[in-house]
Amino acid sequence: MRSKQGRDAEPRSVIGWDGIRFTVPGDWNLTGVSGDKAHGYLKVDSPGTAFLQVKWTDPGRAAPRTPVQMLEQIVRRKFRREATAVGPPDLRGMLDAFLKDTEKRSRKIGASFSCKVKPQTEESDGERIALHFSWTGSGQGQGKVWHCRICSRTVIAQVVGQGKDPVANLAARIFGEFRDHGDDGWNTWGAFDMIAAAPSDYVLMAHKFLSGYMRLELTASGKGKIVLERWGLAHLARRKFSLRDWLGQTVGADRYAAVFEEVTLNEHVGVRGAGRVRSPLGVLQAVRDALPSLRPAVEYEACAWECDETNKLYAVQTWQPKASATIMGDLVTRCECH
Q1: Which one of 35, 63, 266, 333 is CB 3.0 to 4.6 Å from 40, fit for a cystine?
Q2: Phi, psi at 23, each rounded to 5°
Q3: Per-residue pLDDT band at 81 (split at 50, 70, 90)
Q4: Residue 272 is part of a domain; what is its CATH number?
Q5: Which helix (H) or strand (E) holds 129?
Q6: Whole-structure pTM value
Q7: Which residues, listed in sequence order, are joined to residue 274 by a DSSP beta bridge?
């Protein structure tokens, strides 16, 4: 979502991904993303020649995705011993390798290359140790590499542009607001005019970006699944369907024999549905998806609303184990539609 921070302030867009969160100029957009909490990369492009790259690593956050990995995780948890204290990574070594690769790319096209690295500093009240760097070659770049003592993540990020681009100013603004982990146990997920949040122990399993449509699917072992969706041009996406029929048929709440009610969601008239997984095949799939937990997510909730201010449709779905405290209210409240 784009918003003005003050009457004459520049519009900013929020980018959030797996605990990473920052703002960029309002006309910049996410153009590439890969990886997961353990190792990830994203790129945000401007309409011109400037862009932002972010890479992060934290092997301790790797989520098990196969039965073998799940079994290994159970064994580690059962027999783990006190871990030996491990110091921060070699930031200078990582940065030297990064700058060497950047230099190679510049040399390949016949451009000279030079770089500067500032002395290591502590930032964010001691949460981070960081190295700031800049370079010129096939363009210009300014960035930093840092290690967060709170979340154990190591991040390297840079703003790149050509001679006419205000790279230093862009980098100062972006890095000044950059967060490498969530707040209060929640991670922001933001891109393409959508800002939402999910509990930080939910991991991204799938995402889809299409023209006018965005979908995120997140899961947590023993807790269930969350699906966040946003449609542009609501009047065309919903057509002549009532919001209740659209939630039941297009989103799929009818498959769970959901009972619907009209509610107020983020200051809009909305619809909430509640049901459960009933088919034998659906229950078996829920049992499989829950492993290594033995608590299948069979309780279903869904909410949908149309934001008149932005002409967008939003749908939030959850699948949780029986007797779990609902998180739907928090998910809806943290989904900013205008």
Answers
A1: 35
A2: -120, 150
A3: very low
A4: 2.60.120
A5: strand 128-137
A6: 0.86
A7: 259, 301
